[in-house]
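Slide 14.
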Amino acid sequence: MNIKILYNSYKGNTEFIAKCIGNKLGIAPSNISLKDIIPVKEFVSLINENSLEKRKERLILNNELQIENDTEMLFIGTPVWAHVPSPEVQGLLLNYLPNNVPIAVFYCHGGKPEGIIEEIEKMAPDNPIISSCDFRSPLMYYKNDSAKRAEKWAEETISLL
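Slide 15: predicted structure.
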């Protein structure tokens, strides 16, 4: 199977979950980053303008990211920033996804992740979300339980293909 794990992490939580999934499936996860650092104030302005076109223009990834057309599924991991994915994951969703590749979303947060899936659906309307899993600060709370849950979720998710 041609499956990729792409993620962005700030405090290590999303990276931890990506590595748990990768270890279980035998896939090396890839951390994505932006070509240019975007100040928080500018990012908030991009979100408040609610213009996906402006975000698409500004959120260009640093990585030479290639997602082949024969990719069967993508696991995409993001920290939650005020109910939206990180700028890096927004750049991925807006600029780099081939159409019709199913995605499985995992996200880490400190409290209120409401709206994250809806935001991802807006940014990747041609990519069905086949599964999602949320993790509340996995490095701070229930690290072992979070690892087991991530592994189980990954197995269940690939069985959907």
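Speaker note: The chain has one domain: 3-158.
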